[in-house]
Amino acid sequence: MDGRAADGGRVYQSAGDQRITEHHHHGGRPATDGPDSVRRPAVGRTPVVLRDRSEVLTRLREGLTSGRAAGVYVLHGMGGCGKTAVAQAFFDIAIREHGRVGLWVDAADRAGLRAGMLAAAADRGARDGELLAAHQGHRPAADLAWQYLDRSPEPWLLVLDNADDPAILRDGSWLRGSPRGTVLVTTRRAAARWWPGAQLQHIGVLPREDAARVLCDLAPYSGTLEEAAAIADRLGRLPLALTLAGGFLAQQVIDPWTMDHYGRRLEEGEAVALIDRGADALTEEDPRHLVGRTWQLTLDAFERRGLPEAVSLLRLLARLAPEPLPLSVLNRPEISAVLPPGRAETALGALLDHSLTQLVDLAGLRCVHTHGVLLDAVAAATPPGLPGVLDATAVRLLDAAVPARPAAGPYDPRLRLLAPHVLTLLRRAAAPPGAGDALALATRLATALHRTGDYLSAWETAGAAATLGARALGEEHRLVLAAHARTGRSLFRLGRYAEAEPLLRRIRAAQSRLLGADDPDTLDTGQGLQLVLGNNGRREEAVTLLRSVVAAREVVLGAGHPATLRSRTSLLAMLTAVEIAAEAEADDTFLALPETCAAHLGPDHAVTLVARHNHARALFVLGHHRAADDEVRQVVEDYRRVLGPDYPVVLGALQLYAQTRAALGHSDAALGLMAQVVAGRERNLGADHHFTAVSRELREKLASGRWRPPRAVSGG
Q1: Region (Disordered) spans which residues (predicted)?
Q2: Counting CB atoms within 10 angstroms of each CB, which of 130, 543, 602, 696 has the fewest?
């Protein structure tokens, strides 16, 4: 028999039965895929300049200093905040300045971590047979890797990048310390329990100026530093978003965009898609390099691990503003339409652990704060059909957090924190009934802010709500008109009479035409307008308007309604001594208003307190100085007890108390009280406010002896 073999083949010939067994042993690396290199960082786009990380790098450098013990460092933060960029910069420093061997392993998944660590072992001298045995499971792979890392003749720096699932490191005991090197981990997992013995370092967003310079580094001819700073603010100063935006601007050749144009396009919608267009130049579409997809990796992991409520909670937060949200808002049964209330704690814990949100403390309130670009990305990826449920749930949660009937009281910082979230909901609502519900909530919140003395926030909230509501409901919708009226009321308290008067006149005219002159909304606007007129030098017109409001409210709402009683007490503050005497003669209940209010509303109701305040004023202008002094002193104490020492009306009562003190001959006490009033009004309202100017003038008259108390009026 003839036989031929070629290329290492074999021919066997036999005349009888034979059994032939061959064993083949081949050197070289096993067939399992591994990284092409562990000596260079496996990263995407490298920053032109690493901005604002010098403090972190200084701390990391200390770990490389000669004589210092080696350790494990963990850089943690939300996706896109630049953890890998910091690790890469430190990697270069360790090699260039400290002579370390740099080893870079991607720890995003088990296979990549295993292959990368065995490649690091090979770099440090592991033999092929040992590596093959580890790959085939015949010997512990982690032990082999650390055996050679511990024996390394040169000191090293090992970077474990993207270690977002610490369980992968823990299961094989892949994360260890060594006297021969330093380990640096980048991760989104913030909880210290995952990193025992490691030094943790949070990596956050960039300061405003450094964020602007990142854009200018990448697209130096696209705009000014100020324009770049405005874009950086819109992008939340997130390094990934800044890098993508700068990359996009730099890529435009035929029709270059300016930063100003880019910023306008961001505000027009689809911001996430626009940002991610800057990733086109990357060699591969890695989800970690796209703001629209980088956080989806974690959300997918939640679904796989049986934590869908974490995804639901983040989608709910994505309907709100990228501002601190009091945790109490989420601790409500109204959340049940999105996730079981009992699972809210677990869901929030998962988001915190994965750096998808963070806890902050503002004015003693624990809040959850989520980055704006992250929220935009989650909102853009929310499946159709869910936004309606999410928005309705968010409205119900915020509605439960705003007082159903706002009342005067101490400043409440929680209310101001709710404002951006309510306005964001209103901005998302494109049509009724959702827009109407959100607008009514926003106006009620503005009222609550106003009645705690936070007039600036009330004006900003009501003004923004009116503008947004008009887009969805039209300028003449009842709720839009009410929001405008609330804006005018706050403008008055801010001393901006020239703006408040025409606005309130226009709204009252529209309400009279559309709703009727005696509609409660029309009357409420009239109540606000008379305040402006009375303080703007048109007392007679104000009194006429106020009397018409009182009469209509008695018919429409009833004599004991809080709004009716408030209007009647306003007359006590508006009328002259002669008018008060005449009114008291015609109506024997007029000067008994404090008792009437207390009977209907209670002794500590804000309207009752104001009635007592205005009654003391009426006694003073009637010339009953001793009685006025006794009453207003008690009013000041009760105001402070019920409304708080810094409530604006306290200063008004103190000013009246200073006048009664002066009328009784206690000039020094009066001047001391007026010093408090002027200082308080300058601090709270500003030096140019009308109320401040009136108080300052009164103080000067008291000091110069030019002030004279009113004389007694017969019949009072």
Answers
A1: 1-45
A2: 602
Query: Could you say which of 181, 202, 223 is where a domain stops?
Result: 202
166, 141: one domain: yes
State the amino acid at position 70 in one-letter form. Answer: A
Q: Tell whether the torsion through CA atoms of 644, 645, 651 and 652 is positive or negative.
A: positive
CATH of the domain at 190: 3.40.50.300
Type of residue found at 130: E
45-61 per-position pLDDT tens digit = 667 778 888 889 988 88
Rounded CA separation 197/622 (Å): 78
The DSSP bridge pattern shows strands 365-369 and 325-326 to be antiparallel
Alpha-carbon Rg for the chain, nearest whole angstrom, is 36
Distance, in Å, from the CA atom of 10 to the CA atom of 612, rounded to the nearest integer, reads 115
What is the spatial distance between Cα 402 and Cα 400, in angstroms, rounded to a whole number? Answer: 6
Distances (CA, A) of 663 to 49, 72, 354, 668, 698: 71, 76, 67, 12, 13
Q: What is the pLDDT of residue 674?
A: 95
Token pair belonging to 688: 């140019």
Q: What is the 3-state secondary structure (H, E, C) of 620-660?
A: HHCCCHHHHHHHHHHHHHHHHHHHCCCCHHHHHHHHHHHHH
Closest CA to 425 of 296, 329, 525, 521: 329
Q: Number of structural domains, the chain?
A: 5
Among residues of the chain, what percentage have pLDDT more than 90? 71
Domain boundary at 494, 529, 556, which? 556
And the tokens for 487?
């804006």
Query: Is the link from the previous residue into 433 a cis peptide, with omega within 30 of 0?
Result: yes
Range of weakest confidence among 7-21, 121-135, 169-183, 515-529: 7-21
Residues 552 and 575 both lie in one domain: no
Residues 437-454: tens digit of each pLDDT: 999 999 999 999 999 999
Q: Which domain range does residue 384 map to?
A: 296-401
| Phi, psi for residue 242 in degrees, rounded to 5 | -65, -40
Query: Where are the alpha helices (H) located in 575-605, listed in sequence order?
Result: 577-586, 593-601
Q: Rounded to whole angstroms, how far apart are CA atoms 9 and 468?
A: 82
Spatial CA neighbour of 439 closest among 388, 397, 481: 481
In a domain, 39, yes or no: no
354, 500: one domain: no
- Top pLDDT among 535 and 4 is at 535
Domain contains 476 = yes
Q: Are strands 365-369 and 358-362 parallel, antiparallel or unpaired?
A: antiparallel
Q: Do 197 and 60 share a structural domain?
A: yes
**437 is a domain residue:** yes
Q: Which residues contact 78 (CB under 8 A, 6 or more apart)?
A: 188, 295, 355, 356, 371, 374
Q: Are residues 607 and 680 in the same domain?
A: yes
Domain assignment present for residue 243? The answer is yes
The reply to whether 233 and 377 lie within a common domain is: no
pTM: 0.83
Asked if 703 and 612 touch (Cβ cutoff 8 Å), the reply is: no
